[in-house]
Specification:
Its cofactor is FMN. By secondary structure, the chain is mainly β. The protein contains four helices and eleven strands.
Length: 178
Amino acid sequence: MSKRSLPLSKVYGLLEPGPVVLLTTAHKGKINVMTMSWHTMMEFEPPLVGCVISGRDFSFTALKATRQCVLNIPTAELAAKVVGCGNTSGRLVDKFETFGLTPLPAALVGAPLIAECYANLECRVVDTRLVNRYNFFVLDVLKAWIDPACKDPRTLHHRGQGVFMVAGETIKLPSKMK
């Protein structure tokens, strides 16, 4: 078997961390939603999620100021809206209105849930030590919501350069983890 060198800019597509999420924030009377795929689980219980948000993003300022957000997990049916949110700045448009998303009040944070997403995770920032250097926030999931009617969610996974993979077949193998 022969191998060829892969440009380092393509590594992201090999290690994508999980489903694309829609991160919502609320700051100074304005709600916003951004598309994010740079996140990782850091701990199981309590659930901690690490995420990278560019300092250029409108949501960066809101998250840094309020230390609250919601990670909304869409299914493949929302792909066009997910991409639209990712290609639009919240500084210029109301993404909820533009892309037909419905904000719902959260129980424990000021940022809204997105009704159309099958799962929603209310979060607060618990560690900002890596924000100045890497734009890396650590989020504590305070409350999780799930749509019980969505039995087999097919999530989007960003492979880079506008390419997505949709979660497919589920397999179950023996595991000693609980």
